[in-house]
Design a protein that fits this description.
Layout lengths: L36 H19 L16 E4 L4 E4 L2 E3 L5 H21 L2 H6 L1 H16 L3 H9 L4 H26 L5 H9 L5 H21 L1 H7 L2 H4 L10 E4 L1 H4 L22 H5 L19 H12 L7 E4 L1 H8 L12 H23 L3 E7 L6 E2 L5 E11 L5 E8 L5 E4 L8 E6 L4 E10 L8 E10 L7 E8 L4
Antiparallel strand pairs: 1-2, 2-3, 4-5, 6-8, 7-8, 8-12, 9-11, 9-13, 10-12, 13-14
Helix pairs in contact: 2-15, 4-6, 4-8, 6-8
InterPro entries: 4Fe4S_Fe-S-bd (IPR017896), 4Fe4S_Fe_S_CS (IPR017900), Cyt_c_oxidase_cbb3_FixG (IPR014116), Electron_Trans/Redox (IPR051684), FixG_C (IPR032879), Ig-like_fold (IPR013783)
Protein name: Iron-sulfur cluster-binding protein
Organism: Magnetospirillum gryphiswaldense
Length: 488
């Protein structure tokens, strides 16, 4: 005799008590739509992140004539990065290291305070997976309808709906790829070029790669990325302590679980009615009743689902709660919960490290030089002895002007008495030279230094170039190099 199966009761294979399976065998989760505080927070977080992601490149910032007008721009062709009034050059790549450190420490601090709030609300995998799942819901229907739809035989109607869903995923993925691309060029011009097919081939390749991964990971891999691919789930517990806020099931109150009594009498049993709404609403298919698991991303929609059931039976909310272990244990023991404790050794340490790294970066940005110099001694030949007996050395002298205005510098030497300077194509035998550098450019000069032979102490001596900006009282830039001469 074949029993009738209610699709609404279909869930992933549930573990026996005390068992938490590492690999889920029955495919991806099919989450049920719920309403509540945490679901609303996910909507708001997704909306803000997607709006920033796609509209951020269109923010303008006036840097003067002949300068990019995009507020945030990663100009690969020009080898610059712009962040409002800050311009980062390739040799300042160490700022990227600082940003990565800030991001990592911020994640640690966020986790210590509020558990996996990043995974549940802010991660791009979460945002796009949630969007793709809701597209399925809007086109096909709720969880029961989607399960029935997938099990139904192939038909014209099924293919049509599937085409609509996949087509919508493709459009969202293309928008994701285009959104990423717009951060690497002027957004208005690039968007026009993309849709008129005038953009460079590299742009379309980049869009295809980013959009393709969005389509694959958000549409098909989904929670498998969080459970099996993302390393964060593996070491998250190391950042938690007993005061970290995490999603937890209050077993002392919910057990022993059983189907809802017809008379609604919960006197001699737990409040959990084993409806599995918490499992059905979970985007990763976790049964939170078996404790904290690496697959739980901490989004809290199971709390919304459970609270609705508690309201239905007139029971107190919070059977599944977003709280700390200390508070959970206090309620279980019948004591007053101590509440949230954000200031503790772990969070102070993370906040202190964050402040130190951010402070170092800020001081570095505020005090960084707007001029950089590179000196290269010519090696073929190392020196030339002139007819008057003096010794000449040649140097490639590069000046990087990192501001958007033309500047004039004065170059002289220290360390060797009687040294004179000569610039190819300009002044010769001078005690100092005037060197002009155009705005936001690198100027390369070939400099000769002539020194009387009797001044040289031996085969080599130290020579220092001193560069100062004309008309400015800033700190001079000293570049120590070698001056070669004949044996004595």
């Amino acid at each position: 005799m074949n029993a009738t199966i209610d699709p609404d009761q279909i869930t992933e294979r549930q573990p026996t008590k005390g068992e938490v399976p590492f690999y889920r065998e029955n495919g991806q989760a099919v989450p049920r739509g719920v309403k509540g505080l945490f679901r609303n927070l996910k909507w708001w977080a997704s909306g803000i992140l997607l709006a920033w992601w796609h509209l951020g490149p269109f923010l303008r910032w006036d840097r003067g004539p002949d300068a990019p007008g995009q507020a945030i721009l990663l100009d690969m062709a020009g080898r610059r990065a712009y962040f409002f009034d800050i311009e980062i050059w390739p040799q300042e790549i160490y700022y990227v290291t600082g940003l990565l450190l800030i991001a990592a420490i911020s994640l640690f601090l966020m986790s210590a305070l509020a558990g996996r709030v990043w995974c549940g609300f802010l991660c791009w995998q979460t945002v796009y997976t949630d969007l793709f799942q809701n597209i399925e819901r809007w086109v096909i229907g709720e969880r029961t309808a989607r399960i029935t739809f997938e099990r139904a035989p192939t038909s014209v109607g099924k293919l049509a709906k599937k085409s609509v869903v996949v087509g919508a995923w493709a459009l969202v993925s293309a928008a994701c790829g285009i959104g990423v691309t717009l951060w690497f060029g002027d957004a208005f011009q690039m968007l026009k070029d993309i849709f008129t097919l005038e953009a460079p081939t590299a742009a379309y390749v980049f869009i295809s790669i980013i959009g393709g991964f969005c389509f694959l990971l958000g549409g098909f891999a989904r929670e498998r990325v969080c459970v099996y691919m993302c390393p964060y789930s593996r070491f998250q517990a190391a950042m938690f302590d007993e005061h970290s806020l995490i999603v937890s099931y209050e077993a002392w109150r919910g057990e022993p679980r059983a189907p809802a009594p017809k008379d609604r009498n919960f006197a001699d049993r737990g409040h959990c009615v084993d409806c599995k709404m918490c499992v059905q609403s979970c985007p990763t298919g976790v049964d939170i009743r078996f404790g904290n698991q690496l697959a739980c991303i901490g989004c809290g929609v199971c709390i919304d689902a459970c609270d609705q059931i508690m309201d239905k039976f007139g029971l107190p909310r919070g059977l599944i709660s977003y709280d700390s272990q200390v508070n959970l244990e206090a309620r279980e023991a019948g004591r007053k919960a101590p509440g949230i404790k954000p200031i503790r050794a772990r969070t102070v340490l993370y906040a202190g490290l964050l402040a130190i790294v951010a402070g170092i970066m800020l001081v570095s940005l505020l005090t960084r030089s707007t001029t950089e110099v590179n000196v290269l001694h010519e090696r073929a030949p190392l020196y030339v002895q002139l007819s008057d007996g003096s010794v000449r050395n040649g140097y490639a002298y590069k000046i990087l002007n990192m501001v958007r205005e033309d500047r004039t510098y004065v170059l002289k030497t220290e360390g060797l008495a009687g040294a004179t300077l000569e610039v190819v194509g300009g002044k010769a035998d001078a005690a100092e030279l005037e060197l002009k550098v155009e705005k936001d450019q690198v100027a390369t000069y070939r400099i000769f230094v002539n020194v009387p032979e009797n001044v040289l102490p031996g085969r080599s001596a130290d020579l220092t170039f001193v560069l100062t900006e004309q008309g400015k009282s800033g700190k001079p830039i000293r570049s120590k190099t070698l001056f070669a001469g004949p044996d004595k």
